[in-house]
Design goal:
single chain, Nucleotidyltransferase, domain 5, two-stranded antiparallel ribbon, 7 helices
């Protein structure tokens, strides 16, 4: 499992599967061993897959923020995923369970947007230090229209006081024109690949969208 976790640093498409199996390392059962072997067989079959970064394809940094409400049935926690791309290739991704319980899908998406906003600001500063022109505002794609309305309309904030204050960080970044949150349909949400199991066809489509290609191509 330690080797598979290390591999997720260059193979984001296995992040969800590795994360799920990793929760049971302290008390594994046969089903968990079978799932781990299946991941290893997949990696062995496509050993030459990797992220490509074409020099001519360096464009704006964009992010995808997605969450799956109460996906983990054992802990009743929601899974949140964030992917940031430079051009057509992924440069940062994260998949984890939210530490606190979300009371609605809107609240859950709002929290993952706040996490994405912090990453977007950090990546913009890194881009400037590397001598790239500033990519601002950074677009974050989200498929929850209620969460988008919440971050763009302050009148709703009085009704959301139970959300921790640091999650309102994203509102400040929008006002400062550092990021912009835009709607995208769930079928086009690339962060789906790290949130839940997908069918083979959709998995292959998202795998190419996040920038994974055979090095032999």
């Amino acid at each position: 499992m330690g080797s598979l976790i290390f591999l997720t640093n260059i193979r984001p498409e296995i992040t969800f599967a590795v994360s799920c199996v990793n929760h049971y390392t302290t008390s594994p059962q046969q089903a968990h061993m079978d799932a781990t072997k299946r991941i290893l067989r997949y990696v062995k079959a496509i050993i030459d897959l990797g992220l490509l970064f074409p020099i001519k394809d360096i464009r704006q940094i964009v992010g995808y923020a997605y969450a799956n409400w109460v996906r983990d049935l054992n802990r009743r926690k929601s899974r949140t995923d964030v992917i940031f791309k430079l051009g057509c290739s992924s440069i940062m991704w994260s998949s984890k369970l939210q530490p606190i319980m979300a009371l609605s899908t809107m609240e859950m998406e709002y929290k993952v947007l706040a996490d994405g906003a912090r990453e977007a600001v950090w990546l913009s500063k890194i881009a400037i230090e590397l001598g790239l022109h500033k990519f601002a505002p950074t677009t974050i794609w989200c498929d929850n229209q209620s969460a988008i309305k919440l971050v763009k309309n302050p009148i709703f904030h009085a009704r959301m006081r139970h959300i921790e204050l640091h999650h309102h960080y994203i509102c400040e970044r929008i006002e400062a024109r550092e990021i912009d949150v835009t709607y995208i349909s769930t079928n086009e949400q690339e962060a789906n690949i790290m949130t839940k199991p997908l069918g083979k066809e959709k998995f292959e489509v998202f795998k190419q969208k996040i920038g994974l290609h055979s090095v032999q191509e």
